[in-house]
Amino acid sequence: MYIPGNIIYFDPFYFKDGSASKPKYFLVLKVTDNNVVLASLPSSVDHLPRYIDTVHGCIEIPDGNINCYVFKSGNIIATNNWAFPKDTFLYGQWLDDYKIDVLNDIYPVAGIDYTIMGQLNAEELSRLIDCFTNSVSVKRKFKKMLLLK
User: Fold this and answer.
1) Is residue 14 part of a domain?
2) Burial 18-34 (b: 16+ CB within 10 A, else e)
């Protein structure tokens, strides 16, 4: 389940900070040897400045400390021809790591606690990782995780 590129839908997702739970997509970016998943929680909310044209792909605004990867609605991004139903934004500042054993305790049953929507195609995953690793606004520890072989 926790394979880089997997797009998982949790209903509901329980946030680490205690925020109200809600249905949420979860994109696995990296899994480390110590059973930690680096992931992005995509959002359908556009927090980019209004003057930015939200095209599919990487948006980097160093002066504004903004890094975002955009998936346009309907663009096929997964190997099973799946696409996000709405424009979707992955913000580099919102990357986070999660312990696999904790996730497995909270979400034990496929089809009930979570659904794997698809596997991001290799080209899209590579562009997304390049976007995050080349950003000035992504935390150094996450860049290191992404660059590990």
Assistant:
1) yes
2) eeeeeebbbbbbbbeee
